[in-house]
Amino acid sequence: MKYVVVLGDGMADYPVEQLGGKTPLQAAKKPNIDALAREGLLGLVKTVPDDMAPGSDTANLAVLGYDPRKYYSGRSPFEAISMNVELAEEDVTFRCNLVTLSDHDTYEQRVMVDHSADEISSEEARILIEDLSKQLSTDEIRFFPGVSYRHLMVWHNAPLDWHLTPPHDILGQAVGQHLPGGARAEVVEAMMKKSAAILDNHPVNKKRIARGLRPANSAWIWGEGKKPDLPAFYDKYKIRGGVISAVDLIKGLGACAGLTPLHVEGATGNLQTNFRGKADAALAALRDGLDFVYIHIEAPDECGHRQEVENKVKAIELIDELVVKPLVAGLQELGEPYKIMVLPDHATPLSLRTHTTDPVPFIIYDPGAKKEPLQQSYDEASAADAGNYIGEGYTLMDIFLGSGQEG
Ligand SMILES: [Zn+2]
């Protein structure tokens, strides 16, 4: 049996006025995914417990079959592992975003304009992070450049009691209300303020502004964590798997679970990503002997954070046309029994511009389990009507990989 998960990050949403009261999943033309929904097991799954933050970290951990309550030890360690940064027991890792803040007199008054600094290129970002590193590193604190706006800070012997705010949660707000809290908060606050002083007039940013792009004019530190300890996916399920993603978080999560990283040229994490390449890479890996592939697609989530209604619909349509359609065709060609699961990790409602813990719609499609087609489509309301509810998200993988289609 071959198993493929197609995860559209943040696809689920609320009804949107601009879409005539439909959700993006309802508004999108997605005949291939809807065909799976008609003949598959459709339902809602609660990926993130209400008492945990609905990040892509906790949510993808659950979708991969790991109880986030038991295994979650922070977001940035997964990214560190994907970036091949060695972590000691005493290391605490932090996400270091390059963000765009508005121009105001004090740091506190400055508004979080863009958590991604216009999705700054990795090349430009590397120069900025290296310059920050020269001036902000200490014997215990180090910086590592990552992809686009996503970078890493590692602090040896740091405490773990932090109140740090994800920058995508405070878009449009003054940062003064959201400065670091915790025992050593003053260190991180001073570092963020100093980063702004270094970056405000940096030549890289002057050139970006001249090109009509937002400057990356501050570092923003959040997402603290320690090295996770996950049992291997193979030990849990006895199948060999791989993971396809553009983002270090998911690559690192896959690495921690012992899944093979599958590289796709042109995988970017945005709407310009190589959708078709992900389907092709998954099929190639299954042909080469893997039995499970986890395809993560970041684009709908980014559109949710950016409040780009039409682009979010478009991202879903591209997943349907360029990932699911060739995947189904390729799996049929392969001639082995297969199952496909389609779902988001969490909702990223356009109206909120951030993630929620709402249950999300899933499909488990098993062409071997014959079933009368139902008149249902893949969306939030249809999935609620279907009556299948999985309260503990991490158990969904057992159902997907198990033999039956129990709900
Ligand atoms: Zn996510």
UniProtKB/TrEMBL annotation:
<dbReference type="GO" id="GO:0006096">
    <property type="term" value="P:glycolytic process"/>
</dbReference>
<dbReference type="Pfam" id="PF10143">
    <property type="entry name" value="PhosphMutase"/>
</dbReference>
<feature type="domain" description="Metalloenzyme">
    <location>
        <begin position="1"/>
        <end position="372"/>
    </location>
</feature>
<dbReference type="InterPro" id="IPR006124">
    <property type="entry name" value="Metalloenzyme"/>
</dbReference>
<protein>
    <submittedName>
        <fullName>Proposed homoserine kinase</fullName>
        <ecNumber>5.4.2.-</ecNumber>
    </submittedName>
</protein>
<dbReference type="GO" id="GO:0004619">
    <property type="term" value="F:phosphoglycerate mutase activity"/>
</dbReference>
<dbReference type="InterPro" id="IPR004456">
    <property type="entry name" value="Pglycerate_mutase_ApgM"/>
</dbReference>
<dbReference type="GO" id="GO:0016301">
    <property type="term" value="F:kinase activity"/>
</dbReference>
<keyword id="KW-0418">Kinase</keyword>
<comment type="function">
    <text>Catalyzes the interconversion of 2-phosphoglycerate and 3-phosphoglycerate.</text>
</comment>
<dbReference type="InterPro" id="IPR017850">
    <property type="entry name" value="Alkaline_phosphatase_core_sf"/>
</dbReference>
<dbReference type="InterPro" id="IPR023665">
    <property type="entry name" value="ApgAM_prokaryotes"/>
</dbReference>
<keyword id="KW-0413">Isomerase</keyword>
<comment type="similarity">
    <text>Belongs to the BPG-independent phosphoglycerate mutase family. A-PGAM subfamily.</text>
</comment>
<keyword id="KW-0808">Transferase</keyword>
<keyword id="KW-0324">Glycolysis</keyword>
<dbReference type="GO" id="GO:0046872">
    <property type="term" value="F:metal ion binding"/>
</dbReference>
<comment type="pathway">
    <text>Carbohydrate degradation.</text>
</comment>
<dbReference type="Pfam" id="PF01676">
    <property type="entry name" value="Metalloenzyme"/>
</dbReference>
